[in-house]
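Components:
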Amino acid sequence: MSKLQEALTANKFVVTSEVGPPKGVAVERYLEEAAALKERVTAFNVTDLQSAVMRFGSMATCRLLLDRGMEPVLQMTCRDRNRLALQSDLLSAYGLGVENVLCLTGDHQKLGDHPQAKGEPQEAHLFKMEKKIDAGAQFFQTQAVYDTEKFKAFMKKGSHLKAPILAGIVILKSVGMARFMNANVAGINVPEELIEELKKDKEKTKSGRTGVEIAARIIKEIKDYCQGIHLMPLGWDDKVPAILDGAGL
Amino acid sequence: MLYTENKPPEEVLESLKGEDNIFLLACNGCVEACQTGGQAGMLAVKDQLEEAGKKVTAAILVDFLCNKMLLWSRLAKEIKTIRESESILILSCGIGVQAVAKVVEKPVHPGLNTVSVGGLQGLWPSDERCEACGDCVLDYTGGICPITACTKSMLNGPCGGPNDGKCEIDAEKDCGWIKIYEHLKEIGRLDNLKKLYKTRNFEKMEPTADLRRNVFYDIEI
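Structure:
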């Protein structure tokens, strides 16, 4: 059993983080950043051509993490694979020692660097989560959460779901990043109050302290409503310990 | 050349489970090689329904279901009967089924699978499209096609992308699955969403060898 599954079945509060492979072959830096968090994180997700941008592969990165003593969660989107490739890649991942998989639809190609490639209501999503559980899903990791009240309402509506949910956390680096995500990243909505908070003290925001404070505050507010958090530091891995300290984890 | 084929009778009856009063609507429009619609197709299905113990409240033939004026004026005369029926079984291409779903607040059931609309000039002046997937799912999606209305052609519900009911790739485009959800809610069929649609059979998109040998098919192509 993987460490992640063990922790989730034991009802422990779980922290996962993320490695986003680069466009190119220089992965070493990303592995080192992950290694620095090894003691505080149960497993590392490896994103799969995130935002539909061509990059170093998820499966190879997973293996490199395993070689360095870290547990990976292979992210796999349906966007770039037909049913032959999906199944074959799952078998290959197993062969390489990968025990956790996060299955995703994938961002549309239009959002990525190959736009020519072929490719609400909360209840509508809850129906789909039920179907995923029936199909064998054992855990969920969400897109970045910023509106804690909305998240809590969702978790209450989904209290019947029989699979643990890890809330996504993305550190807000700047006003520009928040606005960019609102305009371009599917499923993310940074409320105006948080953007105002980032605007207030420019120096503090630039140093990362505002982002760390916001992330820690979000985690504190929602941690009693979910079974873990999934951090997506996007290059700010060195801020993760401060966030976990601030959130009391 | 429009090529449709009858859905297997047991699949149609399964979709009509729990409904006894069925309004049957057939398209008499495009020339078909397969003779699934029209008068003959309609009467054959009517017999099947009655044999299975269903009451056919009306069997109506409309020249083009995809012609808004024709459809409205014909259905307007039948409002009372439609109200008394639990659902509408439609023998037409996917556009016809979606056209009816858009103008009538009743569950619609496709009786045919659309395999090819090659060369067809559709008359429906609206957004609905039929990709001729050969395995019509409009029954479970409330008459809104997830293959054409959803940018990703998702078959089991929305992706994580929609924002305020709009698609992740275009803030002007409605999310097909949110539309499906809202419509199913309106017609009291939210349970449909629990159905797990497994994998699409892309082979069904090809007209069969038998059809290609058909004389009508030859003339039209």
